[in-house]
Write a structure and sequence with these properties.
Distance between the termini of chain A: 46 Å
Order of helices and strands of chain B: EHEHHEHEHH
Helix content of chain A: 40-55%
Number of helices of chain B: 6
Helix content of chain B: 40-55%
Structural class of chain A: alpha/beta
Order of helices and strands of chain A: EHEHHHEHEHHEEHHH
CATH architecture of chain B: 3-Layer(aba) Sandwich
Distance between the termini of chain B: 19 Å
Strand content of chain A: 5-15%
Shape of chain B: globular
Number of domains of chain B: 1
Strand content of chain B: 5-15%
Largest sheet of chain B: 4 strands, parallel
Oligomer: heterodimer
CATH class of chain B: Alpha Beta
Radius of gyration of chain A: 19 Å
Number of strands of chain B: 4
Number of helices of chain A: 10
Structural class of chain B: alpha/beta
Number of domains of chain A: 2
Largest interface: A-B, 38 and 39 residues
Strand order of the largest sheet of chain B: 2-1-3-4
Chain lengths: 228, 144
């Protein structure tokens, strides 16, 4: 156990297979882990509480935990509390979306803009709850990261930019590029404003650094799209 | 449970593992089976319900044939169904499908590449064939 380690919030998704809200809970949780709050979050597969060992069952006792459930059956919340430990925050996708997911689909194959919007809304809410939990626990000591938090839940690599003669890492930059490419953002100089605006949501950019970020981002985006 | 006494659709239950692409492949293979390949004789069930010991879910797995699709060797779906008293007639492991796709880049835990979808189709086709064989009186197949 090391007191110097960063406190990480556990996010546990129900991933309910029967309903679209289960798919949204799963995707929103991953989006938080990979893009919105990398380095501040860990997760675990809910069924592993029963299929795994004591390490897995200690998860909620080691981390302040948010349960993300698709429906009012609250399987993630109840399952975590039954087999692991108390849940600090319980979120329900159907409540967050206020019933606006009737057109959402279970399968990734038939996902539309409505599904993506739903995932964005739920993930933003999870991120806000993480910030609140971390603020509450800012003085708390955090133990060693549980071995139950498998390597695959660690944040995705960031992307490096050259800014002012130094290398700056932007967390989740490849995912940001992926999202923008999916949205149809062209890999040319006309996209520089949108790039800056989007990256700024996740990464602090000082006003006097904007021009350098613009140049570096558009070059990196062109490279990502295979149009250097 | 004697499978000859089971009634209703075969339950296809993936682990939906959130950490790796394998969980997404199992989940999508399940939807391919229950929505497209064998919608009349299959259904799925939220695995999380079994984790909570939900009475209806437990009763369902005890009275239906169950096919589990697990992403990793921890076999969460198979173990949870068996702990609930269900009988797994076919236990699919996504990692096994990768033996025919060495070096494949199937995508991520949230998005599949073309190779990933190819693996989904292969798992779904083979599993659906087994289920359809059982439904028409073929021998029950145990795959470990």
């Amino acid at each position: 156990m090391s007191n110097e380690q960063t406190l990480k919030v556990g996010v546990i998704s129900c991933s309910g297979e029967e309903i679209a809200e289960g798919t949204i809970s799963r995707l929103a949780t991953r989006r938080v882990l990979d893009l919105l709050r990398p380095g501040q979050t860990v997760t675990i597969c809910l069924p592993l509480f029963l299929a795994g060992g004591q390490e897995e069952r200690d998860f909620a006792r080691r981390h302040p935990t948010i349960a993300v459930d698709g429906c009012s059956k609250l399987c993630a919340k109840r399952g975590t509390e039954m087999h692991s430990g108390p849940v600090n925050v319980s979120l329900v996708v159907s409540e967050i979306l206020n019933g606006e997911c009737a057109e959402c689909s279970r399968s990734a194959k038939s996902q539309s803009e409505v599904d993506k919007e739903a995932v964005w809304r739920v993930s933003e809410r999870i991120a806000a709850e993480i910030d609140a939990l971390l603020a509450q626990n800012s003085q708390a000591e955090c133990g060693e990261e549980s071995e139950a938090a498998c390597a695959c839940t660690r944040p995705v690599p960031g992307g490096n930019l050259e800014i002012g003669g130094r290398t700056v890492t932007v967390a989740g930059l490849p995912l940001i590029f992926e999202h923008l490419a999916e949205s149809g953002l062209a890999a040319d100089d006309s996209s520089v404003g949108k790039l800056l605006e989007t990256v700024r949501i996740y990464h602090p950019i000082e006003p006097d650094e904007e021009q350098e970020y613009k140049s570096s981002l558009i070059e990196a985006y062109k490279l990502y799209r295979g149009k250097p | 449970m004697n499978l000859k006494e089971s009634s209703g659709p075969t339950l296809v239950i993936p682990c939906s593992g959130i950490g790796k692409v394998h969980g997404l492949i199992g989940r999508e293979a399940t939807y391919e089976i229950v929505e497209r390949l064998a919608p009349d004789i299959t259904d799925t069930l939220c695995l999380a319900l079994l984790v909570t010991g939900d009475e209806d879910a437990v009763a369902k797995v005890r009275s239906h044939s169950c096919v589990t699709i697990d992403g990793c060797p921890k076999a969460c779906s198979q173990k949870n169904v068996e702990m609930a008293g269900g009988q797994v007639t076919k236990a699919v492991r996504v990692v096994d499908a990768f033996k025919n796709h060495r070096g494949a880049q199937p995508g991520t835990a949230t998005k599949l590449s073309e190779e990933g979808w190819t693996i989904v189709h292969e798992i779904a086709d083979e599993t659906a064939r087994t289920i359809c064989g059982d439904a028409t009186g073929g021998d029950t197949q145990h795959v470990q």
